[in-house]
């Protein structure tokens, strides 16, 4: 399970399925490219894209503040903040499973000059376990789930794949 799956699960099960089945359209998305530039150029002294995990869980953290024991996710916009929160909670959950002490996560929105703190509680752990089960079921589908037809679909990197 990778952290991106959690984000995509909450965004769109079809997006999750397509990505997990190596149908990757993100390289053509201007929004994804801009987000990558923001992440790479915002906390220049920090190590970016730290990979942690094992065969069950694979994380790609934007960066980790060792001194404060805080993980950071850098995001372009807060339009999908709930997705960002669940992705950060998943990271906290996995790091806890791996025995890595982390106090909390921060989601950084540099363009908005805003940071939110994310903590993990017992209800979150239960929800993440259910989410992982749901993701595993979706990934077993032979065909992608149906189109959800939400307003944000127009900005999705898979828009042409789904609607054309």
Task: Describe the model.
The protein contains 6 helices and 6 strands. It has 164 residues and is of the alpha+beta class. Helix 1 runs antiparallel to helix 2 and helix 1 (3-11) runs antiparallel to helix 4. The longest helix is centred in the C-terminal third of the chain and has 19 residues, at 122-140.
The count of helical stretches stands at 6
CATH architecture label name: Alpha-Beta Complex
Order of helices and strands: HHHEEEEHEEHH
Helix content: 40-55%
Give average pLDDT, whole number. Answer: 84
Strand content: 15-25%
Global shape: globular
The low-confidence parts are none
Structural class by sheet pairing and helices: alpha+beta
Total beta strand runs: 6
What's the short version?
With 164 residues, the protein is of the alpha+beta class. It is built from six helices and six strands, in the order αααββββαββαα. A hairpin with a 4-residue loop joins strand 3 and strand 4.
Distinctive features:
two-stranded antiparallel ribbon; 4-stranded mixed sheet; 6 helices; 164 residues; 43% helix
Per-chain topology:
Blueprint: H1 3-11, H2 13-20, H3 30-42, E1 50-53, E2 58-61, E3 63-65, E4 70-74, H4 81-97, E5 104-109, E6 114-118, H5 122-140, H6 159-163
Parallel strand pairs: 4-5
Antiparallel strand pairs: 1-2, 3-4, 5-6
Helix pairs in contact: 1-2, 1-4
